[in-house]
């Protein structure tokens, strides 16, 4: 089932998410719905807060990046199989010189900005069958995971921008939070307080 994606301005996107138990109700169905929602919106990652659930769960399928001609054969190979479920993840370490990449977000449509992140991460998480995993990720795959991990920490990519960049996109963000945008996928907009 395709779920509505929560738009910028909803408090759930700024809340640190909670760990989920192994017996979380209908977890497999939720994961399947998240993949269907992500693919419908042409995304490469989706975190549970983006569908209104403040739980430590996100999914990633970075395989579309494998089509990029500017990346190495080795990275292309890794990206082609980069489809995973991350439950209760913890980034243990980030390494390397920060590099910038133009990021976007399904909760913040029509806004893309360069974000600096470290290229290599070590992460511990449970997969969809609740098997504990430890991985070292690098490059674009690490970046997608870092972006989704930020979501469960209550951090948006726009929070990482300079003061000037934030001021420049303020009007766009306001329009998104007010639902004054056209997108090709279902969205849920924040309930705005009426002026009294």
From TrEMBL:
Q: Does the keyword Cytoplasm apply?
A: no
Record keywords: Iron included?
yes
Q: Which residues form a coiled coil?
A: none
Catalysed conversion reaction: N-terminal N-formyl-L-methionyl-[peptide] + H2O = N-terminal L-methionyl-[peptide] + formate
Q: Which UniProt keywords apply?
A: Hydrolase, Iron, Metal-binding, Protein biosynthesis
Give the protein's cofactors: Fe(2+)
User: What EC number(s) does this enzyme carry?
Assistant: 3.5.1.88
Which catalytic residues are annotated?
148
Domain of life, per UniProt, equals Bacteria
Task: Please name the top-level EC class of this enzyme.
Answer: hydrolase
What Gene Ontology biological process does one annotation of this record name? translation
Record-linked Pfam families: Pep_deformylase
- What Gene Ontology molecular-function terms does this entry list? metal ion binding; peptide deformylase activity
HAMAP family reported for this sequence: Pep_deformylase
Its biological purpose: Removes the formyl group from the N-terminal Met of newly synthesized proteins. Requires at least a dipeptide for an efficient rate of reaction. N-terminal L-methionine is a prerequisite for activity but the enzyme has broad specificity at other positions.
Which family would the database say this protein is a member of?
Answer: Belongs to the polypeptide deformylase family.
UniProt-recorded name of the protein: Peptide deformylase
Q: From which source organism is this entry?
A: Mesohalobacter halotolerans
